[in-house]
Write a structure and sequence with these properties.
alpha/beta; Rossmann fold; seven-stranded parallel β-sheet; 10 helices
């Protein structure tokens, strides 16, 4: 007998590490994993934000803990991996979500800002994936890695948007996902990417204020922005046995914006 859909999406007994998990899209996806039954470890830079978010998830019946770490710093990443494995025993699901953006014209883009974005958005994903895989997923011949990319990684920017480093980093995340999926498939590790469109968040607040919600929503065939539910289903699909035969893929969750722009 094949399993029911409910069983395929069930994450009971699984463990998940979510970076950038104290707010915004990371918290939304951490909540989704917890609601599906996973034990969740949140991480971000700020302990106070993590404490508050963990309490919110626990109030909803989710088994949740947190570790503060800066995923742009190699030492912090290695410490995060070690402490997570010490507390959880192993990691079934790694959600690489911590990220940064920087707005500046390409000709004036500060090199230090470029390095900041790349260190967090690309280098950080690589180091944490390597550590979790080497010390948990590869020995157990099992694992799910989900990388947060963006539709910004699929092409250029509309007029007035100057986020060269961010776009470049998210394009790198998409091909990092493909390459890693090919290399680690032999260990039964799936690696997939989610490419959100525009979601209101602290990171996007400036753009929302400048361009306006109606203007941004008008770029989508659905005529709306992403909300607090829109990443939950795909996240659980990639994390669960419902997605066990999906690897090396990216999917845009953008209301159709990338279809219009040809991404």
């Amino acid at each position: 007998m094949t399993r029911t859909v409910t069983k395929l999406f069930d994450l009971s007994g699984k463990t998940a590490l979510v970076t950038g998990g104290s707010r915004g899209l990371g918290l939304q996806m951490a909540q989704a994993l917890g609601e599906a039954g996973a034990r969740v470890m949140l991480s971000s830079r700020k302990a106070e934000d993590l404490k508050e978010s963990a309490e919110t998830l626990r109030a909803g019946g989710i088994d949740c803990d947190w570790i503060a770490a800066d995923c742009s710093q190699e030492g912090d990443i290695r410490a995060l991996a070690d402490e997570t494995l010490r507390r959880l025993g192993h990691v079934d699901i790694l959600l690489n979500n911590a990220g940064a953006a920087w707005g500046a014209p390409a000709e004036d883009h500060p090199v230090e800002a470029w390095d900041k974005v790349m260190n967090l958005n690309v280098r950080g994903y690589f180091i944490l994936s390597q550590q979790i895989a080497k010390h948990s997923m590869i020995p157990r011949k099992s694992g799910r890695i989900i990388n947060l990319a963006s539709i910004a990684g699929l092409g250029g920017n509309p007029a007035g948007m100057n986020t060269l480093a961010y776009n470049t980093s998210k394009g790198a995340v998409i091909n990092f996902t493909r390459a890693l999926a090919c290399e680690w498939g032999k260990y039964k590790i799936t690696v997939n990417a989610i490419c959100p469109g525009f979601f209101p968040s602290r990171m996007t607040a400036g753009t929302l204020k400048t361009m306006g919600e109606e203007t941004l929503a008008s770029h989508s065939p659905l005529g709306r922005l992403g909300d607090d539910e829109d990443l939950k289903g795909l996240c659980v699909l990639f994390a669960s046995d419902a997605g066990k035969h999906i690897t090396g893929q990216w999917l845009a969750v953008d209301g159709g914006v990338s279809v219009v722009t040809g991404g």
